[in-house]
Amino acid sequence: MRKLAWAALGFAAAAALAEYILPTEGLPYIAAALGVLSAGLLFWRKPAGRRAVICGFAAALGLLAWWAHYTVHIAPAEALAGQDVTVTARLTDYPERYDAYERAEVRILEGAPKERALLYLYPDGEGETLPDLRPGDVVETEIRITSAVTRRGERSRTYTAQGQDLLGYIRGEVTVTGRDAYAWRYWPQELCHAVKEMCGRIFPADAAPFVKALLTGDSADLEADVENYTAMRTAGVLHIVAISGMHLGILVAMLEILLGKSRRTGLLCVPVILFFMLMTGCKPSMVRASVMMLMLIAAPLVGRERDGITSLAAALLLLLIANPMAIGGVGLQLSFTCMLGLVYLLPRLMGWASDHLPMERDIVRFVVGTAASSLSATAFSLPLSALYFGAAPLLGPLANVLTILPVEVCFGAGYVLCALGAVWPAAAMAGGRLLAWPVRFCELVYRLIARVPAASIGISNIWAALWLALTYALFILWWFRLRRRRVSITVPVSLSVMGLCAVLLAARFAIRPGQGRVTALDVDQGLCVVLADHDGAVMVDCGSTGLLDAGGEAASYLFSIGKTRLDLLVLTHLHADHANGAEELIYRMPVGRIILPAGDSDEEGCLDGILTAAQKRGTEVVQLAEESVVQVGDMALALYLPNAAKDMNERGIVVRAEMLGKRAYVMGDAGDDAELALLAAGSVTDMDVLIAGHHGSRTASGVLFLEQARPETAVVSVGYNIYGQPSAETMERLARYCDTVLRTDEAGDVTIRFSEEAGRDGEKE
Questions:
Q1: Which end of the chain is more exposed for a tag (fewer CB within 10 A), N or C?
Q2: What distance, in Å, lies between the first and last C-alpha atoms of the chain?
Q3: Tens of pLDDT along 479-535?
Q4: What are the Cα distances from residue 307, in Å, to 4, 536, 642?
């Protein structure tokens, strides 16, 4: 490994330690000690000594760089958090508009630390929006500065990893006061914006979001298409629309096809690569790909050997020198682990394939090459994906093999059609309608793969997490030991497949006859409760306003207990923290029936998406107008409508479930008024499990209700919020009347098991 690679390793490791573990105030002292230790190793003349010295000095520099970046750029902005200031700022890109808010990326010029910042505008209900703005416009407005390193009470790395050191919420009118004298430097952003608009004009509505994301990396419209976005995530192919080396490789290949492979073409590729990197926003994956591609192009031009590891190390070092806190970015970590797999494993996999497969056939070379590339890219990134997103997509290689060719066609032809649209719109629109068919094919493949129950396996299941760890241990053992003893690769592959089959089979028998369970999933600030026995599964609510994805968490949990179908989904009411994950859940797995309150107002825009998804998937939707009893498996569900007040919370559905002689109440957001209405109607009886109402709000779980209910176990589903939930007095009441009180923000997923033989047993899974 080259010296540059060792330096990058030391620098990156130190930056990671500073980002995740080491105290900020102690970094200079630790760096000094590391520098002294490295200097002492200068007398170690062996190669290992030289590598240790390079790593040590680079690590010391990495610690100092992280500390200096925090001190100079982050700390001054953090000191102003919570203050209202008037700032002058220059836009560095076009504003982004979403359903609930708008945001603009700017460079602060006056009134606050002169850093890159994100300014958010949440409409006040009077139609207030940002004016039409372009990169280079200079604006003035009042903002409230907020922390870029703390989000929802926890350490966040989302913004600082992208170089955005200050956040602000716009509180006044935004006034354009001028334009940057060097606005020409924003031509790449102008071109990117033009490509996005052209995609919307020349491609059909169902294909435009995919093509726009593929060409520019802007996936906002694609994310709004919940069905396709969910399918892509489950199939493990979101990297296709994250601008990266694949796109750059296609672009360079197009130039070589048009101009031929030559020194002149190589030189022409340099400005094209740089412009494309600027146009797509200098994302870490794009910077990494650009640096690597430029080094690979430049190597033969200057008479040097091409070396993938050195190129990768140079790209990483360049990114971290510019912003050491970028090491905390999920995108950067996934991008570099994917590329490390391609650089290190792909040549070896292809060498093995050449020795064992008939590679002289074009179709075999294409399939094997695509599969090997996908496996190589996944090998090192899959554990990170599982760690960050809670699931491991297992069928990603298959999805890549089936769609990589149409994706490459769409990328190359998409840019050609956008250019054609500027001079001959009619011809471009005709080409767009034609190119929409490969897009539809890809989306169909992703949807079909996503419907396979084992397409993505959630690691919240301890057995699935253990299988993943053992699979990696097997392959590492084979690579470094058994391979040299002529042990075939089919041995670890077979053992891994057998282990996966065992995990899936165990999930099928997770709930045996005569057993049942109530599970309150940890979905942050929201509610998602699963009632399941051997023969059926019911879910009450599926929503979260926190950082977790309620629909994905719910689907992963159901798969982990062997449920490939949800018999009934009850939505107590249509607030986002109870219903915004339902649409994704319907696309992730079959749902037999949905019950929601009749006449419930859709204040937060959940209903339309749920109804559309239900219609596409053949799910029955029932709007409940009166109390009802539903039987699912051996579970009897009584659905109450307190109709206690005009407030939506008090009119929501309350669920009483009976299984194996035990009772569980799920209160939704019901408060005092609904509880009193249920008491008056005689609908409250002794209960074994209470899913407390309104996330432990002060106005829920009243004394009269608890005296009548006397629950053995109470569970509060809650996460970070600004409402003070759960309130101290409610928790005190629950502790007084219940044997056990659990909170999902402290205990995680909470499962209470019922059994005919053993009675009731509650535990955290």
A1: N
A2: 44
A3: 888 877 888 888 888 999 899 888 888 888 888 888 999 999 999 999 999 999 999
A4: 11, 56, 70
Mapped onto helix, strand or coil, the DSSP state of residue 712 is: coil
Distance (Å, rounded) from C-alpha 13 to C-alpha 410?
38
Q: Compute how many other C-beta atoms are within 10 angstroms of the C-beta atom of residue 344.
A: 15
**HEC sequence for 466-514:** HHHHHHHHHHHHHHHCHHHHCCCCHHHHHHHHHHHHHHHHHHHCCCCCC
- The residues facing 632 across adjacent strands are 635
Tell me which DSSP letter residue 72 carries: I
- DSSP label at residue 181: T
Provide the angle, in degrees to the nearest 10, between the axes of the packed helices 462-480 and 362-389: 130
Residue 415 and residue 380 in contact, taking contact as beta carbons nearer than 8 Å: no
What 3 state SS string does 638-684 have?
A: EEECCCCCCCHHHHCCEEEEEECCEEEEECCCCCHHHHHHHHHCCCC
Q: What is the pLDDT of residues 543-574, one digit of tens each?
A: 998 878 899 889 989 988 889 899 999 999 99
Distances (CA, A) of 223 to 212, 289, 336, 678, 732: 12, 24, 24, 41, 42
In CATH terms, the superfamily for domain 84-181 is Nucleic acid-binding proteins (2.40.50.140)
Can you tell me the distance from the alpha carbon of 514 to that of 275, in angstroms, rounded to the nearest whole number? 65
Closest CA to 625 of 658, 600, 592: 600
**Residue type for 294, please?**
L
Beta pairing partners, 90: 107, 138
Q: Where are the alpha helices (DSSP H) in 280-329?
A: 284-301, 308-322
**Count of alpha carbons within 13 Å of 737, Cβ hemisphere only?**
24
Q: Could you give the CA distance from residue 435 to residue 305 in angstroms, rounded to a whole number?
A: 40
Query: CA-CA distance, 673 to 665, in Å (whole number)?
Result: 16
The CATH number for 515-758, chosen from 3.60.15.10, 3.40.1830.10, 3.10.20.740, 3.30.70.2860, is: 3.60.15.10
Handedness of CA 498, 504, 507, 508 (dihedral sign): negative
> Token pair for residue 602?
């859709």
Nearest-angstrom CA–CA distance, 643 and 677 = 8
Q: How far is CA 146 from CA 4, 450, 577, 688, in A?
A: 38, 39, 24, 44
Q: Do residues 388 and 330 touch, judged by C-beta distance below 8 A? A: yes
State the average pLDDT over residues 55-59.
Answer: 93
Only one residue has tokens 């797999």, namely: 341
Q: State CA 202 to chain mean position distance.
A: 30
| Cβ–Cβ < 8 Å for 668, 572 | yes
What amino acid occupies position 72?
Answer: V
Within 13 Å and on the Cβ side, how many CA atoms surround 256?
12
304: number of Cβ within 10 Å: 11
Taking only the tens place, the pLDDT of each residue in 435-477 is: 999 999 999 999 999 988 778 887 777 888 888 899 999 988 9
Smallest Cα–Cα separation from 287: which of 327, 251, 315? 315
Which tokens go with 704? Answer: 């009269």
